UniProtKB/TrEMBL annotation:
It holds the Pfam family HisKA. One of its GO terms (molecular function) is phosphorelay sensor kinase activity. It is found in: Cell membrane. It is a multi-pass membrane protein. Its main location: membrane. This is histidine kinase. The keyword Secreted does not apply. Keywords: Cell membrane, Coiled coil, Kinase, Membrane, Phosphoprotein, Transferase, Transmembrane, Transmembrane helix. GO terms for cellular component: plasma membrane. Residues 385-437 form a coiled coil. Its EC number is 2.7.13.3.
Amino acid sequence: MQSKIRYRILFLTLLPIILTLVSLVFITIYWNVIYTGKQLFMKVKADLVVADNTLSQVQQHQQEQLSTISGSWNFQHAFQLLNQNDPKPNSAAINALNMFLAQKQKALGLDFLRLISVADAAADPDLRLMLHQTQQQAISGLMVLPKKQLARISSSLADKAYVELVPTRHATTPEQKSETRGLLSRTLMPVTDFSGNVFWYLDGGIIFNGNTAIVDHIRDLVYGKGTLPERSIGTVTLFLDNIRISTNVPLEQFPSKQEKINRAIGTLVSDEVGQQVLIEGETWINRAFVFNDWYISGYSPLYDIRGKRVGMVYAGFSEAPFLHNYLLNIIELGTILVIVLFLSGFLVYRGANSLLQPIEYIHQVVTAVQAGRNIRIGNLGLNKENELANLAEQFDRMLDQLQRRNAQIQAAAEQLEIKVEQRTRSLQDKTEELERNVALLHATRQQLVTNEKLTALGELIAGIAHEINNPTAVILGNMELLKYELGDDAKAVEEEIDLVIQQVGRITTIIRSLLQYSRPGEFNAPIEPQAITPIVEEVLLLVRHSIEQQKVELVKELTATGIVEVNRPQLLQVLINLMVNAAHAITDNGRIWVRTYDWIEDGQSIGVKIEIEDEGIGISKEDLGRIFDPFYTTRKDGTGLGLSLSYGIIKRLGGTIEVKSTVDVGTVFTIGLYHKANEDQQLGPYDGLLFGDKT
């Protein structure tokens, strides 16, 4: 939308139309939801009022029916025979009256109709309340009777009252399996004689349990043809407490018109509705779940003749068809919106095409120029006073000026690049030469300092060795002479004599090591090609006694196959010194690893490496940089020359010696020897030596 001005213009043009239409849609939806919902609830409320009034009319109609019966000639004739002063009632009159009442009961659709004396009525606790309210006038009302009392009125009433209960969704599971009570619409009418005295009553009415005529009559009255959408079901129900005892709510959600409707008699009202209507006594006007679907529903409580809530009357219609129509209206409205947007966009596109084509062409030229093509906009076929024509002309002029400036800048840049390259090359050459001179100067200075130190140290050591050798030779000779002269008497001081000779020998060894360190050339042995593994095996044999004393486990990993040029005795000296140091570094039982392997670099073998690793106390970072200094040692009985001599021997062979150590973990010494020794290599005192923590 931002890259194409065509789409931006279309968007800005269509935005007001889109906002207007969308607002219209939302306003329409809002009105449908609010006002249609209110109208539905108002309708169901009116339907509920009609149902309540119809029930009242049923009771009024009953009174009219009983009044018609009592005023008929046949009833009056039979009644006069029954009221004669004969102390014993005329059985023929009674039979005639009962037959007449039975015919009228069947003709009028009543469930019971009987003539009852005042005494019998007074004895009946259900009729006693009605007697107090008659005042020689008919009275009607609702009444709930148990099975036994129904049977006393008529045996058929108890059978009609039976309703099997059905567990229902959104309702509490019933504790009993059936309902045997009956909900009656009962009318009690006094029958007077010629003197106006009341000795008899007409007792008649209907039972609502399983009675579908009344609910179907109310349904046909309220939900006639054309009052509801297609497939919407209008239903009416009478409840005894929370049980549907008379209803036209179908068991199936959408029953076929050809099939007989199975009614949801025995199902229960939802707990939410029961709480509000039965317990709180309020009217329910809202959507509610009715057996298997949602209905727009109205419920109102039913009161018996005592004023007690005994049930409910319900009127409502299914909600799904209204939702279907509502969604269909939204889809239709959305379709109209899309069509209007499409037509509006098409018309805007056609109307703005004359403006958009020059703009698109200008955009294409600009894109081509950015890609490096040398083109111009030229004539757009528009009037010269047109803003786009002026813009194209100015843009072409700008491109011409830019092309000339670019050519000048390119020429200057090429010259500058040549000069920069020349200066850079000169600076690189001088820098490399300076680096070489600095490195040479550093190496020369370091070598001079080292040589001066070694020269001074060699002269000092040679003088000291010369002065010490003469006394030690005298001491050693006199001790041998003393031992010889004493003969057997020397056994008393033999231990002291041996200790003196041993210490003189140790002094001699130190002097020889000092001379070897100060004048290594005098002690050099010939260098010959040697296999490393036999030398290491010989070292292990020589140091076996020292390792066994330390109780150290030795692990060998000897895999080297290459031949290197070394001085065998000197290499033995180096390895023995490292092995002994490793054994002394282990304070408790531990392990020493001896490894040999070929030294490979860039895929080629250049020599052999020897590793000696221990699990000793390790070397601190402070001591690690000084271990190859002469006379530096951490052992009480050490001379501090072993590692310095070893370093000198490896350095003269042109090899490398590396050490890595971690305190309380261990130390690893690694010696690298080349296939071809380089005795003439001039190294600093620590060249080829690497320090670092063991990882």
